[in-house]
Automatic annotation (TrEMBL):
This is NUDIX hydrolase. It holds the Pfam family NUDIX. InterPro entries: NUDIX_hydrolase-like_dom_sf, NUDIX_hydrolase_CS, NUDIX_hydrolase_dom. Its EC number is 3.6.-.-. Residues 42-177 form the Nudix hydrolase domain. It comes from Paenibacillus gansuensis. Transmembrane segments: none annotated. GO terms for molecular function: hydrolase activity.
Length: 183
């Protein structure tokens, strides 16, 4: 199947908002049938997330998420700085949020979070052979670190304490890893 038959050509881009992390634009596009439409698009620099395993448990952080108006339990994660290599960012975020350094770290997969309206891509890494360092969260980051079992992670998912895509993906990848020894 050719992706070209679905392609939309941008006629005009109208910037709406430019923030510290995201920007919002409205694009006027020509549809494959010749008609025009608009697309509201959130631009994001990309992010990393880390499935960090230590002593058979997964490291998570709990923090308040204003967009949801509640605390969430998530794997360590953060946005990419301009021009930053995702692997370097994964190492940085793991250490900043948990204090751990990875002896072994590798990319599991990269995925788009909401392709219907945003270009954010998340690079998910597996970190193992961890050694304890020093926690150094961003100045506006208040979080609590926990090491949880797979059963606890599954329970947190049932309770909606874990409900974000990157952490749910990591839990399922970890489950496959435990069952097969491979991801």
């Amino acid at each position: 199947m050719s992706h070209k038959k679905f392609e939309e050509t941008t006629i005009e881009t109208k910037p709406i908002y430019q923030g510290k992390i995201i920007s919002l634009q409205v694009d006027t596009v020509r549809l494959p049938n010749g008609n025009t439409s608009t697309r509201e698009i959130v631009k994001h620099p990309g992010a990393v997330a880390v499935l960090a395993l230590v002593d058979g448990k997964m490291l998570v952080v709990e923090q308040f998420r204003k967009a949801l108006e509640k605390s969430q339990v998530e794997i360590p994660a953060g946005k990419l700085d301009p021009g930053e290599d995702p692997l370097d960012a994964a190492r940085r975020e793991l250490e900043e949020e948990t204090g751990y350094r990875a002896g072994s770290i590798r990319l599991l997969h990269s995925f788009y979070t909401s392709p219907g309206f945003a270009d954010e891509i998340v690079h998910l890494y597996l970190a193992e052979d961890l050694t304890v360092g020093e926690v150094n969260p961003d100045e506006d980051e208040f979080l609590e670190i926990e090491a949880i079992t797979l059963e606890q992670a599954q329970q947190y998912m049932k309770e909606w304490r874990i409900s974000d895509a990157k952490t749910i993906t990591a839990v399922y990848a970890w489950q496959v890893y435990q069952l097969t020894g491979r991801i």
